[in-house]
């Protein structure tokens, strides 16, 4: 097993519980867990600027990859509706942040919105750092509360926290915000936080409306 420092041995738990900025997204977080669902202090809906600030403050080495901003994304949708190519459109926004701190690795994916870019997916990976699956399970339960679904104690660790009362078995394909944790075959701890299908469909609809190809929501009054 790779030898790492004593501080890194507790890296995952620290990452799960570290503080974050941009508390405006708190209302969208699940109430099922002991605390809001975040990974390394990063939450779904945080702005790219807030993520960069929080990770840099907490000692992460941050690199960004460019993506299309809101205006370009809307133009891309307009061209798609007309059957035209969008190959030449610029990438002047932000698509991902890749961050490292010791043996920890973090990937944050963003989607463009009119006011910038916001988090839609967070993926975390680190060595188990000498912990057993049972110890990892205990730490995660203390951090996030009782999972919606969990593998038996005798099986490889696999846990899922779903939000909005959704009885999901996996975070992949869920309609609401969800978190997945596992120990993989290489004995690495992995976390994945996803926004869910409802948020993705709502975003797609907003792009279509901005491009003039969607139908505005009807008033309730």
Average pLDDT reading:
84
Give the helix proportion (percent range): 25-40%
Task: Write the H/E string, N to C.
Answer: HHHEHEEEHEEEEH
| Continuous helix count | 6
Helix/strand structural class? alpha+beta
Please compute the radius of gyration using only Cα atoms.
19 Å
Report the sheet-strand fraction.
25-35%
Mass-distribution shape: globular
Measured distance between first and last alpha carbons:
63 Å
How many strands in all?
A: 8
What profile does the largest beta sheet have? 8 strands, antiparallel
Order of strands, main sheet, comes to 1-2-3-4-8-7-6-5
Low-confidence stretches: 1-34, 215-221
3D architecture notes:
- The protein has 6 helices and 8 strands.
- The protein has 221 residues and is of the alpha+beta class.
- An 8-stranded antiparallel sheet has the order 1-2-3-4-8-7-6-5, covered by helices on one side.
- Residues 1-34 and 215-221 have low confidence and may be disordered.
């Amino acid at each position: 097993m790779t030898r790492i420092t004593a501080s890194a041995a507790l890296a995952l738990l620290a990452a799960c519980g570290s503080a974050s900025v941009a508390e405006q997204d708190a209302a969208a977080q699940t109430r099922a867990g002991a605390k809001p669902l975040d990974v390394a202090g990063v939450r779904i809906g945080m702005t790219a600027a807030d993520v960069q600030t929080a990770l840099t403050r907490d000692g992460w080495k941050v690199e960004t990859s460019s993506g299309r901003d809101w205006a370009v994304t809307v133009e891309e949708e307009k061209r798609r509706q007309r059957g035209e190519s969008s190959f030449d459109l610029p990438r002047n926004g932000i698509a991902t942040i890749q961050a490292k701190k010791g043996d920890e690795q973090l990937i944050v994916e963003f989607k463009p919105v009119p006011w910038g870019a916001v988090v839609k997916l967070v993926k975390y990976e680190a060595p188990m750092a000498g912990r057993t699956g049972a110890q990892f399970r205990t730490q995660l339960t203390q951090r996030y509360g009782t999972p919606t679904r969990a593998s038996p104690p005798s099986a490889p660790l696999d846990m899922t926290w779903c939000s909005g009362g959704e009885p999901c078995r996996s975070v992949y394909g869920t309609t609401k915000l969800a978190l997945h944790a596992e120990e993989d075959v290489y004995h690495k701890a992995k976390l994945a936080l996803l926004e869910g299908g409802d948020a993705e469909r709502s975003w797609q609809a907003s792009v279509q409306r901005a491009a003039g190809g969607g139908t505005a929501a009807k008033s309730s009054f």
